[in-house]
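Homework-ish question, so no full write-ups if that breaks the rules, but can someone show me the predicted structure for this set?
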Amino acid sequence: MPVFSGTDLTCLRGDRLVFTGLDFRVESGGALLLLGPNGSGKSSLLRVMAGLLRPFRGRLAWDDAASEDDDQHGGRIHYVGHLDAVKPVLTALENLSFWASLGGAADPAGAAMAALERLGVPHIAGVPGRYLSAGQKRRLTLARVLAAPAPLWLLDEPTVALDRAAVRLLEGILAEHRAGGGMVALSTHADIALPGAAELHLDHFAPATGDDVDLDSDANGDGEAAA
Amino acid sequence: MKGFLRLVARDLRLALRQGSDATIAVMFFVLCVVLFPFGVGPEANILARIAAGVIWVAALLASLLSLERLFLTDYEDGSLELLALSRIPMEAVVLAKTLAHWLVTGVPLIVAAPILALLLNMEAAGFGVLVLALAIGTPALSLIGSIGAALTLGARRGGVLLSLLILPLYIPVLIFGAGAIDAALNALSPRPHLLLLAGLLAAALPLAPLAGAAALRQALE
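A: Not a homework solution, just the prediction itself:
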C-alpha cells in the first residue's frame, strides 16, 4: 500500500514565501482536495508534489523513501497542469498515443482510443489539435491520465472549461481510480464530488500566520476505498 | 531508448506537418549565399576565393534561425513539463530534439550546399570536402545551439540573446569547416581540419545534452 506524504514543506517563488510548514499525507485509495483563494499556492504545491519544483524546505516521501531525487517518481504520477500540451498539427489520437507510449502503455493507440471513449469524445480522435474547443482539449488532456497507468494523479483545476456532464464523468473516473488503489490530489474552485477526500486549506499555511500553524485536517482521509 | 526514438519520430512528424522550419532554414541559406555575388560583384575569381567562407557563414546563420523554437513550443504548451516527468532522462530529451532539429534543418543545408558552391564558381575539387565538412559540422552546430536554446527559454527576446550567446561558440566550427575546403582547393590534405571538426562534434555530443538538460530544469522551476 503506497503512501505519499510531505512534511514541513515550504515553497519559495522568487522572493515570495507561498506557504510554509505544510504537511500532507495521501494513502492508497485516498484523495486530497486543495482549497484556497487565488495565489495561495495550490498549483505550486502540485508542482512540488510532481517534482517539477523543489521545495525550499521540507521533505517529500513515497513509502517513507525520499522522492525528490528519485528518478522513478515521474513514472508514478500523472500531472495535469493548466497547459494542455496538445500539438495543433497532430490529431487528438496522435497527441494522446504519444503520451501513452511514453507513459509505458503496452498498446498506446488502443489505450488512447479507449481513454477517449471513456471521456465521451471518441469522435475527436481524427481531429487535429487546432480544431478542438477548449473543453475538448481539456477532455483530451484528462484522457492522458487514463491512457497510461500511474498510481498518483495530480490534477490542477481539472474542471476548467468542462461542461457539467464531463465533470460527472470525471468524478466517476476519479472514484474508479481510487477504488483501484490509486491516489488523487486535485485543486479546484468548482464543486466536484470527492467522497471522503481530505481537505487541505492552503491559506492556513500562508507565511503571515507563522510557522507553527496546526493542521486543520490531518490530510489522511477517512474514505479509504477497498484496494 | 524506445522513448527517445518516439520523441524523435514525433518531432519529425510535427516538422513535416508544419513544414515551415525546414523550408525557412534552407531558403534563408540559399538567399543569404545568393546575396554575395550582388554585394561583391560578379568577378568569378573573387567569388571562388570566398565561396567556402560564405557558405559556412550562411550555414551558421541558417542553423541559428530555427534554434529559438527548438524547445520554445514544447515549453509554451506544457509538453516540456510532461517530458521532464516522463521516463526519458532530460539529457535524452535534449539529444532527441536536437537530432530531429538537425535532420529537419541541417540535412537540407548539406544537400543545397554543392549547388550554391557551383553558383559561386567553387572548383569541383572542393565539393566532396564541402559536403563532408558540413555533414560533420552541422550536427555540432545544432548541439552547441541547443545549449543556447535551453538557456534562453522564457527570456524576452530570446532569439537575439541566443545569437549573442551562440555565435561566438560557433567560431571553431567555422574555422575548421572553411579551412578543410580551403586546404582541398589548394591541393593540401583536408584531413587534419576534418579530424578537428569531428573532435568538436565528439566533444559536443555528450556535453551539450548535459548542459542543455541542466538549463531546461532551471527553466521549468
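Now go work out the reasoning yourself. Hint: Chain A has six helices and nine strands.
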